[in-house]
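Input chain follows. Return structure tokens only.
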Amino acid sequence: MLIFALAILSFVLYTTTQSTTSDAAPSTTITASQTAVTMSSTPKYVVAHFMVGNTYPYTIANWKSDISLAHASGIDAFALNVGSDSWQPQQIANAYSAALQSGTDFKLFMSFDMSSLPCGSADDAGTLRNYITTYASHPNQFIYNGRVFASTFAGESCTFGQSSVSKGWSTQFTKHPALTGSNAVYFMPSFFVSPSDFSTFGDVMDGAFNFNSGWPIEVNTSFVNSVVSSLHQLAPDAAPSTTNILSKFVGATATDAQYLSALSSMGGQRTYMGAVSPWFFTHYSPQTYDKNWIYLSDDHLYAARWESLINIRDQIDIVEIVTWNDYGESHYIGPVEGAQPNSQAWVDGFDHTGWLNMTSYYAAAFKNGSYPQITKDQLIMWSRPHPANATAPDAVGRPANYQLTQDKLWAVVMATGQCTVTLATSSSQSQTFNVSAGITKLSIDIEAGGYMHGLIERNGEIQVDLQPGNFTFNPNPSSYNFNAFVVASP
């Protein structure tokens, strides 16, 4: 953590003192002429983390609907996060049946949730092996480098009854006699360990999934205060604003570099899977899951992180979107359906599928090596539902790190050509931008009582007029909700 903090401090100081861009720069744009990105001959894939634990009432029709929507949005596979509930194996079977019936080449693979599944005995590993052998030959199983692809959430302390974690995973899973030949596994776990410890798992990991890379999780209020203080000491006349500092973290690839370096030092052809995520807010009381915080998600996190990964796509094999349907942590991009984990208070009425409008664009750029041409004007907008400093009669309290978030309307414009875009959050708060063909990130302030309204105009004609009638930036919320309200033009 100290090394990371020092590296970020140096980065922030360098980019701040070298840049002549104003803190208030309103937008960044990828224009139609800036389509080339670093090429790589390695096939690229985009997958999405899918919480099977939220599918209790799902039918095969629900699975088919999700698969069709994900496939249309440029996603190649679902990472099926499976836990210990007795009903989940049947939902896994439904998912594979739906994928086959969908008529697409959409793939599925197991992402074992080792925070739920037991892993203390050799028998526990049999559950994992059974999932692999059951679906290894299924037409919609994701096969990577000729083997059955599998991942995890956690698992860094699992021994499966053996003398060490590495031996447990090796003897009971990756090297087990049942997982050979057509059942052989290509294992890409998300072990929450320091990359410097990857060498311990040389006989286990074919690569690594960096689950937490989708957000700048190191950025909390104390960390930012420390950086601000250090920058003022180092450069009192050039120290940036807190807002400018925070923007430097959004989409950063520091942890990607750490993972890539560690995997390279292990030798062989190791695969890296990075994460991209649009948001993070969770609000569970100490009496339930005891999770009440946000991660920094401002400054167009989803778009910025995608662009960062595309810029280094020659080093990245797979991108996993976190997530399709984790409602409890507010980073879902799929429809709100199924069974929520008691997250209705901050999820109901907060559709996120507008972010899918961007997903296919960025997924295509990552997989193909160039940004696709935009053929239809689109506008995506989002904001939180109340001011960060609002007071609510909520016993859970404000989420940790709420001070980091800005009261803004965020917008992404996907334009077919030169146009003007006007964003408004009240009768007295609006701004008009000249926008080029391509994708442009914009934002303006929003105050208590404000709304969201966006216009795309070209040659005096309105191309898009987007204003949700059910959104108000509420100064007096009944509970704290730092989720995003997302809307998009059709």
